Predict the structure of Beta-hexosaminidase.
Amino acid sequence: MAWALRLRLLLLLAVAAAATGGRVDLWPMPASVTRGAQTLLLNRDLKLSTAGSSYADGKGILKEAFQRMVAVVELDHAINGTYSSQGAPVLAGVRVAVRSPSDVLNFGVDESYKLSVPATGNPLYAQIEAQTVYGALHALETFSQLCNFDFNANLIELHSAPWTILDAPRFPYRGLLIDTSRHYLPVPVIKSVIDSMTFSKLNVLHWHIVDEQSFPLQIPSYPKLWNGAYSYSERYTFDDAIDIVQYAEKRGVNVLAEIDVPGHALSWGVGYPSLWPSTTCKEPLDVSNDFTFQVINGILSDFSKVFKFKFVHLGGDEVNTSCWSTTPHIKSWLLQHGMNESDAYRYFVLRAQKIAISHGYDIINWEETFNNFGDKLDRKTVVHNWLGSGVAEKVVAAGLRCIVSNQDKWYLDHLDATWEGFYTNEPLTNIYNPEQQKLVLGGETFSRPFGHVLQQLQIHSYKIAKLSRLAVTMYCDTDILFLGYIVAHRSSWVHKGHNICAKAVDVLFAYPEHKQ
């Protein structure tokens, strides 16, 4: 949380530095912004009012978000309580009116809001109007970016009032993937990642929980599965998963759980060796063994008790099926069922899809499933593009939904990916039919922890700028000179003592060979 908070402060400092120059620099840029020229001061004891709101805030989502916002705005500084000598109007608080009483975080939930900051009034209150509490959370984030700590007067200022901001995201799916199989992340680090996402209004944490390297999650139905963890301590209990999901939900972030089948599953057999084709050829999972699908059913049954998001990710990528044709009992099964390796791959994916649907999920699969047998996929399938460009247009033309994550543009661990490419990666390229455009749910960036490349603190400092660029593309349809903006404010970060992020800017932007 501490490092995510510091990264958040970097964004606020950058916005504050630009405020005096007459620019509107908000992450992501709202759909509509008007402003004036009045400077306000914020009351040292800023109030939250929910009078007239239909939302009772029984879970404390709004109250806690307001407290987090105030803590960030104040920058842990002592605030001067004397305003009379300043001569500027004082903002007493924020009134929030949420129309919906529900805080169920469904996919496609209304995230729109209106933020008004008047220049006059007694008492003077900012006003937030939103259909749901999750729109109100975005409004609080935007409000925080309007505020600037004055180090000379020890006061919080809000420039350019009155403000009227109308906003709604461009895409309903704005995601970040973390991989806890290849590199274990402690729960506090995952929570810090979630906090960082909210600063850019990203709303889906894609949790790639397991892979061939390790199986760190407790599965009550099959308790030996987490024998495949790296170590006894590098595990997540079932309650840890519940805690992460609840933490994310209170910040407007859904958690998408992924188990990758039939490939990337070597770790499953540590606890249950019969899931392997053989002890010498350990993946993909044994397609001929009904126990394989019983385990998948058990995992998804347990998932349904924790991961309430509409979707579950079943992977399906990079499947090397050679073990199936070289393992005698599977080879015999293939002959008996009149299948070759490709047929068995399709059979496995489709059977796993049916299991997921039986637990109430829509399915997301990596694009290889579409590339190999797209016409056979269940219509509830969302195709996750990651290999390259040009896939989304084919997917939506086939009537299926798509998420864009092409690795040459949006993978954070691809250090050769240029900023120009990251910035110009448009999910709707060559998709002109409005109905087909609706099938592109959004996009996602892949933040595999760089264990062998960077330490955790460096991960965050590297990630923040690129995450913010993705957020602009996913959230709004505005041409913002983001690259130049970050570079321009490097000096202000150094001045404020935030050398970690300044060094990250040096790496990302200054070296011509990276063109970052």
